Amino acid sequence: MSSIKTTYHALLAKWHTLTGHKLFWPVFMAAGLVFCIAVDTFDFVDLYLQLILIYVGINIILTVSLNLINGYMGEFSVGHAGFMAVGAYVASLLTVHVCPAGAQNLFFPLAILTGGIGAALVGFLVAIPSFKTRGDYLAIVTLAFCMIVKSILENIDAVGGPRGLLGMEKLTTLPWVFFWTALSVWVIRNLVYSNFGRGVLSIREDEIASDLMSVNTRQVKIIAFIVSSFFAGIAGGLFAHALQFINPRMFDILKSTDILIMVYLGGIGSISGSIIGAVIYTILLEVLRPMGIWRMVLMPLMLVLLMIYRPRGIMGMKEARMFTPLRDLVTEKLWRQKKKEATDATP
Amino acid sequence: MPLLEISKVMHRFEGLCAVSDFNLILKPHELIGIIGPNGAGKTTVFNLITGVYRATEGSIKLQGKELVGLTPHQITRLGIARTFQNIRLFKELSVLDNVRIAYYGQIAYTPAEALLHIGRFRAEEKRITNQALDLLAIFKLDESANEKAKNLPYGLQRRLEIARALATEPTLLLLDEPAAGMNPNEIMQLMDFIRWIRKTFSVTIILIEHQMRLVMGICERLVVLDFGATIAQGLPALIQANPKVMEAYLGQEVAS
Amino acid sequence: MAYIFQQALNALQLGSIYALIALGYTMVYGILTMINFAHGDLFMVGAFFCFLIAVYLKLSFVPTLLLSMLGVACLGVVIERFAYKPLRSAPRVSAIITALGVGLFLENFTLALSPYPKHIPQLLENITWTIGSLSISSLQIIVIALSLVLMFILDFIVHHTKAGMAMRAISWDKTIVPLMGVSVNKIISLTFAIGTGLGGAAGVMYGLAYPVIDPYMGIMVGWKAFICAVVGGIGNVRGAMIGGFILGAVEIMVAAFFPSTYRDVVAFTLLLILLIVRPYGILGKPQPQKV
């Protein structure tokens, strides 16, 4: 038994040295992108599998962005689908009505970006009530917001009303999803390991103490909500151009619940957790599809069991070493070295 | 110019007057104490100074600048830091992070630079990590830099709270019952510790305490509160002999 | 004029149902600080029990109502014992996610067993009285009256019995209460039984008023009732009743004067504004933060 453990630790150490290398991430990302472009051009992977991978990517973006608010900041936002809706509709309206025909492939990233910005503006609005209210009352605000967005979309005929929008080209390809997923994970990870990220964590731990330790909690909350909703909007735009059809019912409270489940399944306050949660949830749902309606009976049951035995999720508040920046460890190591040299020098 | 000028401060909670007519003039580098029975309003005074509560009436000036109406983080950035009666560390965060958060107000990079890890980001992060570790080393906490704050023993947690407060580079330090839960030996060490902090960090200190040994030992001046009102102010020796104070409260120890 | 009275009556009916459901949320929240998101689905189960009992046991109204309430209450206690009890010391949000999971389970389990919407047979003779241009149906009167009776009984239990006192005590301090000789588990089970039982009753009455039922009917109603509980001040029993009636009134009034598709938008926007003006709900008090 112990030999298995020692081999595990040896392998883990090798893995850490590999991922700790300065060039690991650039090479890995480049390889991934090349692979996705190849798959997209030559179709040597089943189209159905490609679609699954696209959904996995979209769900990763949604989960990581929601984790920022719910996991790291400790709030309870149930309105994420609303931000996704804004991004989806804005991006779709742009490619369908504004973009000149034929230029759609070039226009696509711009449309997605605009969708994200639109969602971010709305996220700013939702951030404002968060200054005064917390906890369950903020949950209501986000819930009401989500329902209001859905209702407003249902009432505007220009965007299709309850029937929805169609006519989007299948612009969402595997390489694009890879790009946006990698970007969102990278940016959110950067934020978490900066003073704003520490600010977010301190708000979760103790908001009043945080304020008293010089943290501008309003600024932190605004940044968190804007970044979170921006990427939800990006995911929405990608989603719309994968499905080629959207309607308000797709972005209701059930969708928000789905994203919530992925966050808590993977683990709150953990980027690797969000990735794991999104991957497991999306793939499991597909794998269990032959079960028909019974898969939606089994999944929640498994979720309940998971919560009972691991309430914080699979990676709850722990982070995979490969996502933590080296910088901190290096600075600390250098500091200790200098300290040792100083104490050695003085007899 | 006095460091801190509190005049005619009154604070009401839903009809209950928590603090009435509080006045204080503090000179730089003084070490004074606020004492009084439980519920007298001592922590309320701290909350009023640091902006957690907004004074119903009166003015609080730090080096001439009016503090009433400012938010807590603005007041902290002007140079006031505090610790808490019940330790309020960021429990799930590491010791190092607890201190680094206190540097929030001094960080020179923008959110955009943080999101992309460009520009001044790396240099600033290196700077505050080193500063935080230096500070922890002074408080002999650097060995546990990566421990979660909740795993530290109680005494070290109190020390960390003080270190965290000093990271904000304050001119005025408010300590709320720093001796809570300590035995007489530890209290002697704490007295030296507080004197040392005042000298090393060049701060003015206001102390709330119940432990008379500590208060009489290091405070240069005392303010006595009872039911929100100031019943006496002055030198410790005079306060000890003050019949009003003895009547309200002098703990179990009557100095002989 | 008569139109307004008519709508007022509709509002009271809808409001009573919302209030009954909101009460269930608020009771559980008050005791455990937990949002039981499965509550809306228990309401749905109540309607389905009513269907099963009415169709297969062919009982009359009162036994059907009582049996359905009992069935839902038992289910609520079982859910609490197996899914929520293990999470009493876990972070609150984990308990909430578990509740969401339980809710999803109930919805889809019911859907798996009953893929098509069901129609509840008429259990009560519906007499309509017309006064001028105003028409009142006996069903409306019964729903409103019954809801008020149940709410009155609940208020009595919470404020005038020993068990109710224990419930209120637990909501203030869970650790001390067992030291006073009160079995916390028993009181919590009782709270769940009463809260979910009321939800079940609401399900029965909803089923009688709007006889076509489907497994997803609990979702929207559940979230709306949750909003009612918060608007009234979550944890406050009387607040939940007020919240329920306010939402009922707002929904009916909005539908009466605006196009029906605007109903949800306006209703939620008004509630949002109310929460912004009174962030802790109408009867709620902010938890005093000791600094």
> Which parts of chain A are unreliable, with pLDDT below 50 for 5 consecutive residues or more?
none
The CATH class name of chain A reads Mainly Alpha
Rg of chain B, nearest Å: 19 Å
What proportion of the residues of chain B is helical, as a percent range?
A: 25-40%
- Greatest chain-chain interface? A-C, 42 and 45 residues
Q: What general outline of chain B do the C-alpha atoms trace?
A: globular
Radius of gyration of chain A: 22 Å
Strand content of chain B: 15-25%
Helical run tally of chain A: 14
Content-based structural category of chain A: mainly alpha
Overall structural class of chain B, as computed from helix and strand content, comes to: alpha/beta
Could you please describe the fold and organization of this structure?
- The complex is a heterotrimer of chains A (347), B (256) and C (291).
- Chain A is mainly alpha-helical and 347 residues long.
- Chain A has one domain: ABC transporter involved in vitamin B12 uptake, BtuC (Orthogonal Bundle).
- Helix content of chain A is 74%, strand content 1%.
- A two-stranded antiparallel sheet of chain A has the order 1-2.
- In chain A, helix 2 (24-42) runs antiparallel to helix 7, helix 3 (47-72) packs parallel to helix 7 and helix 11 (253-266) packs across helix 12.
- The longest helix of chain A has 27 residues, at 217-243.
- Chain A starts with a helix and ends with a helix.
- The mean pLDDT of chain A is 90.
- By secondary structure, chain B is an alpha/beta fold.
- Chain B folds into two domains: 1-79 and 175-256, P-loop containing nucleotide triphosphate hydrolases (Rossmann fold); 91-169, no CATH class.
- Chain B has helices at 42-50, 72-78, 95-101, 111-116, 121-138, 154-167, 184-201, 212-218, 236-241, 243-248, and strands at residues 4-13, 16-26, 31-35, 57-62, 65-66, 80-82, 172-176, 204-208, 221-226, 229-234.
- In chain B, helix 7 (184-201) links the parallel strand 7 (172-176) and strand 8.
- In chain B, helix 3 runs parallel beside helix 6 (154-167) and helix 7 (184-201) runs parallel beside helix 8 (212-218).
- The longest helix of chain B has 18 residues, at 121-138.
- The model of chain B has no long low-confidence stretch (mean pLDDT 91).
- By secondary structure, chain C is mostly helical.
- Chain C has one domain (2-277): ABC transporter involved in vitamin B12 uptake, BtuC (Orthogonal Bundle), CATH 1.10.3470.
- In chain C, 71% of the residues lie in helices and 4% in strands.
- A two-stranded antiparallel ribbon of chain C has the order 1-4. A two-stranded antiparallel sheet of chain C has the order 2-3.
- The chains are: A mainly alpha (347), B alpha/beta (256), C mainly alpha (291).
- Chains in contact: A-B, A-C, B-C.
- The A-C interface holds A 70, 76, 129, 132-133, 136-137, 139-141, 143-145, 147-148, 150-152, 154-155, 162, 208, 253-254, 257, 260-261, 264, 268, 293-294, 296-297, 299-301, 303-304, 307-308, 311-312 and C 29, 35, 83, 86-87, 90-91, 93-98, 100-105, 108-109, 111-112, 115, 219, 223, 226-227, 230, 234, 261-262, 264-265, 268-269, 271-272, 275-276, 279-281, 289, 291.
